[in-house]
Amino acid sequence: MRSTFLGFNTARSGLFAAQRALDITGHNIANVNTKGYTRQRLEQAQSNPMALPGGQGMLGTGVDTLAIKQLRNEFLDYKFRGENNALGYWEAKRDGLHFIESIFNEPSETGISTVMDELFSSFQELSKNPENLTTRSLVRQRAIAFTNTVNHMYNQLEKMAKDLNFDIQATVNSINGYAEQIGRLNEQIFRNEIDGGNANDLRDQRNLLIDELSKLVNVEVVEVLDVNDDVASTKDHVGKKMVLQINGQPLVSHDKVYRLDATHKDASEFFEEELDTTVFMNTIKWQNGSTLNTSGLKGELKALLDLRDGETGSTKGIPFYIGELNRFVEKFAQKVNDLHAQGYGLSGDTGNFFFTANGVSTQDMKDDDNLKITARNIKISLDIEDLNKIAASSSSDLLPGDASIALKMLELRHDSHMFTEGKPEDFIKSVISNLGVDTQAAIRNAFNQQVLTEQVDGERQRISGVSMDEELSRMVMFQHAYNASARMITTMDEMLDVVINRIGLVGR
Predict the structure, then answer these.
(1) What pLDDT is stored for residue 119 in this prediction?
(2) Is the separation of the CB atoms in 261 and 231 below 8 Å?
(3) What element of type H or E holds 365?
(4) Reduced to 3 states, what is the DSSP secondary structure of residue 223?
(5) Are β-strands 378-380 and 220-225 bridged in parallel, bridged antiparallel, or unpaired?
(6) Predicted confidence (pLDDT) per residue in 99-148, tens digit
(7) Domains in the chain: boundaries
(8) Which residues contact 400 (CB under 8 A, 6 or more apart)?
(9) Which of 46, 47, 75, 379 has the most CB atoms around its CB within 10 Å?
(10) Which residue in 324, 16, 367 sits closest to 150, CA to CA?
């Protein structure tokens, strides 16, 4: 039999449902500008109906509020994090290559091409007047300018490697920081959802951290069932614990964090063996000593590693460009030295090198088999500090005007067989051109990736973001529903008042 107060209970359920929906709408509106917030909706369904006697049918009993759910698409989250990861890589790669371009500083009045041209011009002046000490002084000064420029380029590249090393350490620390926060949130979410609820706002905080982390390194999010929780594991996602992985290895397993560590290694393992420096470069491992597969890394961290350690054409980094600079310097110095050693100075000296490592004498250079000329150490020979020992003549007779060696050194400018790329100028142009192509590709990829990332995020926001127009519309809808339920209660009250207080009073 129908309860006398059934109508009250039915209207009351509608009143409470509308009130709760209004609370959620207000929460959405309040967080319209909150970064990472996902709009929420009240899930509700009709309550269990009551069967009427005699097969008359089922009588509705109102509405039940089931849960407060987020409007979120996990596939779009996955897609966004992948695109954001690629964006982090290309932005870091773009900035790094652009800085390498600024180190080479070509073409410019102070670049290596200019100082090399000025050195060749001084050889030309020497060929015109080989006995003139002023001209010889010009040759020495132009040679010093050339070596200083090369040394400076090397030092700047080495400094950039140190800066990148610091950035790698900072990025690893950031990853660990994100992991710690996510681990704490995992435990809070698990505890809040153990009774079947939804920790929506905590999940928003966690998702925002994962979004930001995805730009630094490629991460994969999985939720696994807690086999030790038989009760909770029967309720939707309750009883599931989140695992955050890098290359299939856990960074966060529920509330347990596996930290990364930047282990120091001697810089000579990253650069040439002759590199004499106290700089220590970082190699990334798990803090427990396990190996991290860095070749499978992506994101900003991978770009920093490629820039610092890249030696091949596919990952051109600082070691690659130092190697190119060394290749140029070694061959160029060898050619000049071979010719200069054949010539004679004003004092009849011969066999002297024009360039040596660290500015040592020719004899010291010959005595030390381990000493070779690089971009880091190229200097003018100690011997030609004496202007009279700069060789211009090919004969010990020192005939007046004999400048055949100076002319041969000048002809090196057009030696198309010096490098596989051609003459010295062609080599520099080839390096700069390839660097420019790589930089422009990184700029273009970063721009395209930015557009793609924003597009995917826009798709996410259309589902998860708060629309003020929609929320205001729903607010009015729930307001009317609330008022209607309240009016229903008033009507039921008036009807019961008639039954209780007025029936049987007529005629008394």
Answers:
(1) 96
(2) no
(3) helix 362-367
(4) strand
(5) unpaired
(6) 999 999 888 888 899 999 999 999 999 999 999 999 999 999 999 999 99
(7) 6-71+466-502, 77-106+163-318+447-457, 123-154+333-432
(8) 131
(9) 379
(10) 324
